[in-house]
Amino acid sequence: xxxxxxxxxxxxxxxxxxxxxxxxxxxxxxxxxxxxxxxxxxxxxxxxxxxxxxxxxxxxxxxxxxxxxxxxxxxxxxxxxxxxxxxxxxxxxxxxxxxxxxxxxxxxxxxxxxxxxxxxxxxxxxxxxxxxxxxxxxxxxxxxxxxxxxxxxxx
Length: 155
Fold this sequence. Notes:
alpha+beta; five-stranded mixed sheet
């Protein structure tokens, strides 16, 4: 089955099997940031954007991306590095395995929600599993990042 899509801003054509997962497809295309930790849509490690909306690539067939735009962390390097610095400053990256999926969701949240409440942040990120922390460092990093973004928009 032939599919054509944009992956991180570049056109991509491929012949795939009808049951190929989007996770496997983006990994074959060199997107190593996308990880699979559970294969049950529970951990958030495989988060990518499909036309700007976060999806769990382990539970989406690649054919669903035909004609669409797929974005991984590799396509958001500058933004990812900016927020990643906030995670590091708060000691929230620890092993770093969950960071790519977490960062993808935070960046999507920032685009979707203006001045999110604590409850909105927690709800938006509920599907991200981190086995190293109690999430307090991640939440501090998000709040500092949002505050910096708000201050920059007022300058």
